[in-house]
Amino acid sequence: MDLLLIMKKQITLFLAALLIPILFSAAQQVEIKITSDTSHYLIGDHVHISIDITTDTDARIEFPNFVADIFPPLGLDWIKSSSIDTMVDGNRKNYHQTITITSFDEGKYQFPPIEVMDFDSVVLAVSEPLFFEITTVAVDTTSQLRDIKQPVKVPLTFREILPYAIIALVALLSIGLVILLILKMKKKEGKTTVKVKVKPKIRPDIAALAALDKLWNKKLWQEGKIKAYYSELTEIVRTYIDDRFDIDAMEMVSNDILEEIQVKNIPPEAYKILHNLLITADLVKFAKWDPIPDDHSRCFTNAKQFVELTADKSNTNPEEPKK
């Protein structure tokens, strides 16, 4: 009888030892939720993403750190991140942060899942992805067109003119000083060498199309050299943009190129083609994305179409590239 009682106590202690960690881990549960104020936005609207993480008051977590560089490959532009607010309710603590982003291209977008880790880099919780759509404003073609009002002429005051007059005086003095220095150097050295940026003799679109044909014949992506293929493809397009639009595209990131070229009055179709090409290339080069073969040929076709749609054909006798 005593032996049976002892065995019951041992079994009870064994079950308690199993249940205590389970109950403790349940008490340590971490929850994360991401929401937005709506799922439909207009182009250029601010999209406010709310991030809420709930933990025990004594739990130690690493709050996700959002940087601006992760958003351009997703087709999004980062605007700002709010500070992290905390609120304690009993034995539970809530962390809240708002991420503000936007986009200037219509389509369906996904805010990626977010991981919450402890200080040992152990994943405690993962959020669901957040989906939303960005559309353009419908244009009312039935409304009557009105003449544009001319600007109202307002006379300038002396206080408004004074800063410009000072700037002009300083500029003239600076120019005069530079001329004196040049004349002095000319007397000392006998001559002055002036470096002039030489424009390419070949028309930019013809040079770009020839370079694209050479790239296609190399068969880089067919041989598995995916990153090298996209690097050379975007280099050809960037060189064309530099020569055609006088934009220093070789020294810019993709978003800066898109902003600069948007004011050059290119066809909307050409802008969309360039946007898709640069974003795909960035994903391959920086996010190690592995596209399918159809994507490789489509990006090559997009590059040729962009050059052909934006070519300046006013020069009717361009020098052909040497074979």
Q: Describe it for me?
A:
The protein has helices at residues 2-27, 158-189, 204-218, 226-245, 254-262, 268-286, 293-310; strands at residues 31-36, 40-42, 47-56, 77-81, 85-89, 92-102, 107-111, 115-117, 123-126, 130-135. Residues 14-27 and 191-195 have low confidence and may be disordered. The strands form 3 sheets. Strands 1, 3, 4, 5 and 6 form a 5-stranded antiparallel sheet that branches. Strands 2-10-7 form a 3-stranded mixed sheet, with no helix packed on it. A two-stranded antiparallel sheet has the order 8-9. The protein folds into 3 domains: 29-135, Immunoglobulins (Immunoglobulin-like, Sandwich), CATH 2.60.40; 153-195, no CATH class; 204-310, no CATH class. The relative contact order is 0.09. It is an alpha+beta fold.
Question: What key phrases describe this protein's structure?
Answer:
single chain, 323 residues, alpha+beta, Immunoglobulin-like, 3 domains, five-stranded antiparallel beta sheet, 7 helices, 43% helix
Any low-confidence stretches, pLDDT <50, length ≥5?
14-27, 191-195
Which CATH architecture of the largest domain? Answer: Sandwich
Give me the CATH fold name of the largest domain: Immunoglobulin-like
Q: Quick check: average pLDDT? A: 80
Strand content: 15-25%
Oligomer: single chain
Q: Give the N-to-C terminal Cα separation.
A: 103 Å
What is the ordering of alpha helices and beta strands?
A: HEEEEEEEEEEHHHHHH
- CATH homology group of the largest domain: Immunoglobulins
Helix content: 40-55%
Write down how many β-strands occur, each being a DSSP E stretch of 2 or more residues: 10
Q: How much is the radius of gyration in Å?
A: 31 Å
> What number of domains?
3
SS content category: alpha+beta
Q: What composes the largest sheet?
A: 5 strands, antiparallel
SS field, number of helical segments = 7
The CATH class label of the largest domain is Mainly Beta
Shape: extended
